[in-house]
Amino acid sequence: MTLTNPASQAKSAHALPSYLNADQLGPWGIYLQQVERVTPYLGSLSRWVETLKRPKRALIVDVPIELDNGTMAHFEGYRVQHNMSRGPGKGGVRFHQDVTLSEVMALSAWMSVKNAAVNLPFGGAKGGIRVDPKTLSRGELERLTRRYTSEIGIVIGPNKDIPAPDVNTNAQIMAWMMDTYAMNEGSSALGVVTGKPLALGGSLGRNEATGRGVFTVGHEAALHMGLDISQAKVAVQGFGNVGGIAAKLFAQAGATVVAVQDHGGTVYQPSGLDVPALLKHVAEHGSVKGFEPAEVLPDAAFWGVDCDILIPAALEQQITAANAHQIKARMVIEGANGPTTPEADDILHERGILVVPDVIANAGGVTVSYFEWVQDFSSFFWSEDDINARLVRILREAFAGIWQVADAHQVSLRTATFIVACTRILQARELRGLYP
Ligand code: NAD
Question: Residue 354: what pLDDT?
Fold first, then answer.
């Protein structure tokens, strides 16, 4: 008989499966480091912290479709439900050629944190397909979306897990997802996805909500920093749903948007880019490239642009130890999910640059998704003014609470947001207890 040391047994009981290991660089490793940083502040709830270090459920699906030329293609799809202690899973679906399980796991975990930080009654989930949707025809994209929805149909539902748009997915894709789910279930199921078209139970204000949230939270942070938005110079990376709308709202508030970078290049105009004209240019040409009379900057120079507010609103891991020293801004407002690596976070902190983290800065989208879900259940729809007013109130209150925690513990806003959110998640976990 082999005797087992209870201490080592307890330790191995907590050992993470290899695919959850923090040593793997990448978004999931970054998330785990963020959880490590917050653990000392969780008091007796830290007993439950292991729950946060692994997803509740991760589904990998094969998504076969017939291409227009008659050949077959297979894509890999995911739906990860990180934590559902506080309610059904909630989080977007991303179509991108670089999507990996690690990325979707991290994005699902950040959704748990975000939903709890804003106190929405949701857990965290995320989905994706590793595909470059720009290579597909509309018909192929519809078949891909419908097959993916059918494959993940066993785990989603209005009371189980509610997908939404993310990078390269939009209201039309949500319409196909809703329709596929409703056909399979044999009943109308408006609340199974959010970010739907208005004609199908979508919510007014949803399209602009994330950008509006970035602006609202940025505005609150600027007040604390004594920074007047109408005098501020702003640089934005990513000019899609989040970055484009945030830039528009900052410009409307009198800020000077001096630089914008997207996948096509970087445009720079110290006197201020004409944001509505740039939005029109991108709608017509697909990118900021070629926008006149702006100067073209090499992409790497974007990070060193003279500005007060920097808004990364594209993809993960953009602000790294390699470029964090160049940043001249007084504050970084994270429109994208996970744009700053932990090393870069430390550099910015040491340099006195305020980072308003993704988990609060871009929570506007999921907040209005929550409103959409509520409206779908009651089949009673609110005015856009109502929606925007409720959104601004919720984000301001959440931000004020997080600022207080940051002040009380003398920690970064990211750690403060994680303290607030992880406490709520783990309180729910403790109250529910373990089943069986
Ligand atoms: P989008 O597809 O509308 O826009 C993405 C933008 O990023 C585009 O302008 C694209 O050109 C740019 N981009 C892509 N690759 C780039 C690169 N290598 N360098 C510079 N720019 C690049 O996507 P979105 O919905 O605006 O999402 C952007 C980010 O915000 C993502 O991290 C997403 O997870 C996050 N987010 C989105 C929402 C939402 O409601 N849409 C909500 C919360 C968080």
Answer: 98
In contact, 258 and 273? CB cutoff 8 Å: yes
Ligand 1 centre from 262 Cα, in Å?
9
Instruction: Round to whole Å and give the CA distance between 416 and 112.
Output: 15
Q: How far is it, in rounded angstroms, from Cα 14 to Cα 33?
A: 16
Cα four-point dihedral sign 143, 157, 380, 398:
negative
Q: What is the pTM of this model?
A: 0.93
Query: Ligand 1 pocket: which residues have CB below 6 Å?
Result: 165-168, 210, 237-243, 261-263, 313-315, 335-337, 362, 365
Candidate of 97, 162, 262 to mutate for ligand 1, largest count of ligand atoms within 8 Å of Cβ: 262
Provide the residue ranges of all domains of the chain, joining segments of one domain with +.
Answer: 6-188, 209-356
Quote the ligand 1 centre to 240 CA distance (angstroms): 6
Instruction: Check if 160 is active-site.
Output: no
CATH code at 6-188: 3.40.50.10860
For the domain spanning 209-356, the CATH number is 3.40.50.720
Q: Tell me, what's the pLDDT at 7? A: 44
67 burial via Cβ count (<10 Å: 0-12, 13-18, 19+): middle
Q: Above pLDDT 70, what percent of the chain?
A: 94
Nearest alpha carbon, ligand 1 atom 34: 337
What are the residues facing 129 on neighbouring strands?
Answer: 77, 95
Q: What residue type is 420 in one-letter code?
A: V
Q: Which of 90, 369, 367 is nearest to 202 (CA)?
A: 369
